[in-house]
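Dear V.,

Thank you for sending over the compound details. I've combined the ligand you provided, NAP, with the protein sequence from our construct and run the structure prediction for the complex. I'm sharing the raw inputs here so there's no ambiguity about protonation or stereochemistry in the SMILES, which I know was a concern on your side last time.
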Amino acid sequence: MDFSGTVILAGPAAPVHLNRAGTRVFGTLALQSWEVLRSGAGTLAEFVVLGSDAVALVPDKLPLAEAAGLSAAGQTALKMCDVAGIKPGRGQRVLVNGGSGGVGTLACQIVRAMGAEEVVATCSGGNVEMVSGLGVDEVIDYRAMAPLPDHLARTYSDRPFDVILDTVGIQALYEGSPSYLKPNGVYVNVGALEGVMWTFWCWAKNALWPTILGGTPRRYVMFSTVTNGRSAEKLADMVETGKVRVVVDSVFGMDAVLEGYDHLASKRAKGKIVIKIQMTDPSTPS
Ligand SMILES: NC(=O)c1ccc[n+]([C@@H]2O[C@H](COP(=O)([O-])OP(=O)(O)OC[C@H]3O[C@@H](n4cnc5c(N)ncnc54)[C@H](OP(=O)(O)O)[C@@H]3O)[C@@H](O)[C@H]2O)c1
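Below is the predicted structure of the protein with NAP bound, written out as structure tokens.
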């Protein structure tokens, strides 16, 4: 769904800042477009046709490969912070579960850029150094500290978090959260590591099961990101002002695209996986 590239042709209604051939743009095809899903007409292509409201200008110094990894993951991280109510001056302490993934690397930085006072992130041991470089205050190796909810209960019960941003989707982390998330805190999850059907079931249970009947007494929010050009512009601003950078795990050519997907499916990416599309016919499409 994500892309970056240059404008080839613009329609008459395109805004002036986007309508010149050669302008560098990035964004995301709307996942909600059933036509896109049905036809498979995604961004793994030389040319992509889409509305100007889905794109934003690539900041001058940002390479196209990094811009390609910014949009959907960044907009998801941005929305997680928005729904969690991250604001400057509130002294909020935030846990980012999965700080090393595509969404997580951006969430660690965006939550800080939006004003969180303290950010703690989790990842596996091999990624601790990379995640430390994202400006977080503390990184927890979730394997060395397994089970993570027990470790968090031991370490943070006397100074619980205001917000937990789960970019992985670990139900036990939510169920254990009363021991390390404030009673008025919020748990925001976007991940589905434990399986899509299970995650949907947990979503319903966590959001609807009353506390008096045994439900976990902490607010749970889950959503599917609706991407748009305005949020992409906010991300571009954060990159331009040096608050956010895109961590690119690897760039694959079109000839190795399946290798790229295998790497994605391994769930071991350190940041974003990018596919570089080679132009086979540079003539302008009509
Ligand atoms: N709701 C939405 O709108 C939305 C939008 C985008 C993505 N998503 C979902 O969000 C999730 C993350 O996406 P992504 O692109 O960031 O994925 P990703 O780049 O593959 O990152 C996966 C993350 O999960 C961590 N992880 C893997 N196995 C784990 C385990 N057993 N316990 C704890 N952490 C583990 C990895 O950490 P280590 O490698 O360090 O172990 C890594 O940080 C996916 O489920 C995706 O479908 C949802």
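A first observation: The domain at 73-222 is CATH 3.40.50.720 (Rossmann fold).

Warm regards,
I. M.
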